Amino acid sequence: MRKEHSTVITTTNSLKFTALSLFLVLINSFNLKGQSEYPFDINYYNFIHYDENKIIFPADSSNFEHLFLKLDTVILNGKGKISIVHIGGSHIQADVYSGRTRERLQTFYPGMNGGRGSVFPFRIAKTNNPRSYKVSYTGTWVSCRNVENKKKCKLGLSGMSVTTYEQTATLSIEIKSDSLVEYYFNKIRIFHENDSNIFKVNFPGLKIDKIERNDSLGFSLFYLKNDYRKFKMEFSKENTSQNKFTIYGISLENDDPGIVYHSIGVNGASFPSFLKCQLFEKQLAALKPDMVIISLGTNDAYTTKFKPDFYQSNYQLLIDKIRRAAPKSAILNTVANDSYLFRRYPNSNTQLAADVIYKVAKKNNCGVWDFFKIMGGLNSSSLWRQENLMVKDLIHFNVQGYLLKGDLFFNAFIKAYDNHMSAKPTK
Predict the structure, then answer these.
(1) What gap in Å lies between CA 336 and CA 376, rounded to an integer?
(2) Cβ-proximal residues to 93 (8 Å cutoff; 6+ apart), any chain
(3) Same structural domain for residues 420 and 277?
(4) pLDDT in tens, 147-162
């Protein structure tokens, strides 16, 4: 699979500029009239503000330059890996909207499939698992989530953990093959508790080349000799003191250039949920993100006692954590969708949260994708529901609605990248 990619990306200067020319023609030749959206045709709804579908920079776009220059290198030279981390609540845990964005980013130009990225055994935690991979397990496991206030446990970037005290327990993950992108991996990064009491990890059937253990960042990286689509994790003891294994997260990676898109979501999560994750910064640093997307706020604003100042303080604290973990990373803030409180009252808090997001973005030189405005503003969720794009809770979308949201988000990102390309001096 890696050889295939190496034949797609050209290497001579003349062919590099040919590839660039073709790419610029591709992203500039779409008809923007009538019912077309850029760069993909999207179903037209008169309540969606397609003209607002863009990334806004309340300060300037300088913090995105590093990201866009790396994207230039991947497209023109077929070199480099772009890491994107998308953090949110239930909209992200389901990974339909973020999954659609991942697929679009990895297929809009040849050789962009940089790997599947983060996965988690949600099934062990008795919560919904993304449809793109299958999780199975044996034995007894104990789970913990950052939204469970009564539980006291250490957590990392994923906002969840699963622990087994049984040496005979197993965990299996298999990537499904029914998506637009064929995912495989030759590296497995396990974020785990790293004390002396943990079981040894084994992967039966996988040929392991070497193991890199990074105690400072809390992960073990297993380099594999071949490409795989599934694995089974088993445990063994090297001494009698080993009595448990705690998983904070898993990343499935490969050596190919392109984009790897890590989706990090927990149902019901708010800013305080992720702020209490003690290992958040270390594990985010390990993924070396070039862009972090923050899609939190729905649960923060789902209350009759919303406090903008408290919301702003928490937003800033999370950005501070991201900056410490990844100083060069671009940060993109997304405004939550319109929703109804208790299925009865239009939630005006979302507009108050949007005002905060713009303030925070200006102060920290972040980008903003204002989906609240794009989808139609206050009370627009009722229109999305009428068109069978949202479910009856008027908070969440159905599959069709999430796919539309993912397409809109991808188009906004490509517009921002197109602006970067257009601003580059010609040679």
Answers:
(1) 12
(2) 122, 127, 128, 130, 265, 266, 267
(3) yes
(4) 999 998 999 999 999 9
DSSP class per residue in 40-53 = S-----TTS-GGG-
Q: Strand pairing partners for 245?
A: 164
The closest of 243, 156, 153, 166 to 197, measured between CA atoms, is 243
The CATH number of the domain where 147 resides is what? Answer: 2.60.120.1360
Asked if 147 contacts 300 with a C-beta cutoff of 8 angstroms, the reply is no
Q: What is the mean pLDDT of residues 290-311?
A: 96
CA-closest candidate to residue 286, choices 83, 67, 126, 30: 83
* The token pair that represents 371 in the structure block: 């989906």
Instruction: State phi, psi for 53 to the nearest 5 degrees.
Output: -80, 85
CA nearest to 28, candidates 412, 415, 413, 407: 415
- What is the pTM (predicted TM-score) of this model? 0.91
Task: Find residue 138's DSSP bridge partners.
Answer: 170
Q: Which domain holds residue 16?
A: 1-114+257-427
Amino acid letter for position 9: I
Q: By three-state DSSP, how is residue 405 classified?
A: helix
Q: What angle do CA 386, 389, 390 make, to 5 degrees?
A: 85
Other C-beta atoms within 10 Å of 33: how many? 6
pLDDT at 344: 86
State pLDDT tens for residues 169-212.
999 999 997 778 899 999 999 999 988 899 999 999 999 999 99
pLDDT band at 39 (very low <50, low <70, confident <90, very high): low
Domain end residue (candidates: 196, 220, 255): 255
- Rounded Cα gap, residues 348 and 45, in angstroms: 23
What is the predicted pLDDT for the residue at 9?
Answer: 30
Helices H / strands E in the chain, number of each: 12, 19
**Residue 382: helix, strand or coil by DSSP?**
helix
Going by their DSSP bridges, the two strands 160-164 and 141-145 should be labelled as: antiparallel
Pair (99, 135) in one structural domain: no
| Burial (Cβ within 10 Å: 0-12, 13-18, ≥19) of residue 359 | middle
Strand order in the sheet with 367-370: 55-56, 367-370, 330-335, 291-295, 81-88, 258-265
Residue 31 banded pLDDT, cuts 50, 70, 90: very low
| pLDDT at 23 (0 to 100) | 52
User: Coil, helix or strand for 177?
Assistant: coil
Structural contact between residues 228 and 49, judged by C-beta atoms closer than 8 angstroms: no
Mean pLDDT of the chain: 90
Is residue 254 within 8 A of residue 2, CB to CB? The reply is yes
